[in-house]
Structures are given as C-alpha cells and as structure tokens.
Amino acid sequence: MTPGGARRTIPTRPSLSTQASDLDPVHAVLDTVVQAGDGYLGTIPAGGQFRIVDLHGNQAVDTLFYDAADLTNRYSAMDTIREQGAVYLAAGSRLLSINLDLLATITADTCGRHDTLGGACAQESNVVRYGVHTRHQHACRETFLRYGAKVGIGPRQLGHNINFFMNVPLTATGGLTFADGLSGPGKYVQVRAERDIIVLISNCPQLNNPCNGWDPTPVRLLGWWAR
Fold it and tell me: How remote is the C-alpha of 128 from its chain's centroid?
C-alpha cells in the first residue's frame, strides 16, 4: 500500500531492454555444460560474476539462490517483486532474500525478461496440469532435492525460484500462462554475488508446455572470480 492508502500498481509489461557483458569466457574459472534435465550446485563468492547461457534457445533454467552462511536466508520472489516494483526480472534487478538481504544483482542480460512467478515443475503439479500419464516424468523439484542434499537443502529449504529465460505472461485477471520463450541461441543472463551465495539449478526437463520449446536442451554455466 502507498502512504495515502491506495494500492500500488506493479507494472507487468517488461521493457525487454538488454545489456551485454564485457567478460570473456576465455578467462572464466567456471565453464561447464548442464545437460537437459540435469542440475548444478555451486558456491559463488561475494563479488563473483555468474553467467547462464541458453545454448540452443527457449530453455527454462530453474534457479534458487541461498545465503551460503545461512540456508534459511533464501531467495524470495515476493520480496524481490515488491521492492523492485515489477513482476519480471531483467538487467539491474536486485535479488532479495526472505530477510531482505541482497543476494545478487543481474548485471547483464541479452534476453530481456525472466520469470519468478511460475514456480518449478513437480511430479504432483504435472499430474494436476497435464494428466496422470505424466506422474513419473522427471521434474525440477526432484533435481533440486537431489543436488541440494549435498549441502543440506531438503524440502523445507525449497522456496520461490527464478525461471531464467522462461516466458510466463501475467493476464489482466492475475492468472499465469506458459508461452513460447523470448530467448534464442547464445542469449545469456549474468548475476553478481553480493555476498557468498549458493546457486542451485535445475535445467528444466518439462515436456508438457512450451517453456522449453517442447524439447529441453543443454545450457552453459560460466563464472569469473579469484580461485
């Protein structure tokens, strides 16, 4: 609410502005490919830059960020949306935790818009949305739990996630729709860690909506920080 009592309107239409990075992959200390449906867990030190590259285009990368010193202090979509006054993420977006600490800042983005409302797919939600025949298809929640277990991230530590490159338009009535992505081959998003953070990724295996162009593909991860 605004000071006068009127409800603040949060803009839904993105600017789709892009901002490139001058960091050269040749000098990256992290350079790895995450296959379709697989995951990644790693620590980004404060000041480090971390890039996700959409190698083939139209691939959703479900991502969680945690304060490395306190796993309960995790990324909050609600607080990030409220404080930045926009429902989509792009260059300049400040990614906040549930304690309102700044975890990371998006420093470069050649896609122009990323979702943080649609959530991660799960076997249970697949059944509700797409039918019983999807019950045993792999889903992001399972990847999060498999990789997160290495550092003590379990079901209680899962929360709001970012869907980098995913296009989830917000309707006039407040609903969500899963649409074809806005990304393309080689487009990327890059964040700067504002404190030591843990990044947990599921390279989405979803086959039942167009978030991955009906064909999940690999992504590349790059990182620049002192060894």
Answer: 23
Residue type at 57?
Answer: G
Pick from 227, 224, 226: which is nearest to 24 by CA? 224
Q: Two tokens at 175?
A: 């609903």
- 29-60 confidence digits (pLDDT tens): 999 999 999 999 999 999 999 999 999 999 99
DSSP of 82-127: HHHT-SEE-TT-EEEBTTS-EEEEEEEESS--EESSS----HHHHH
Report the predicted TM-score, pTM, of the whole model to 2 decimal places. Answer: 0.88
The answer to whether the beta carbons of residues 165 and 93 sit under 8 Å apart is: no
The 187-193 sheet, strands edge to edge:
30-34, 219-224, 49-54, 187-193, 102-109, 94-96
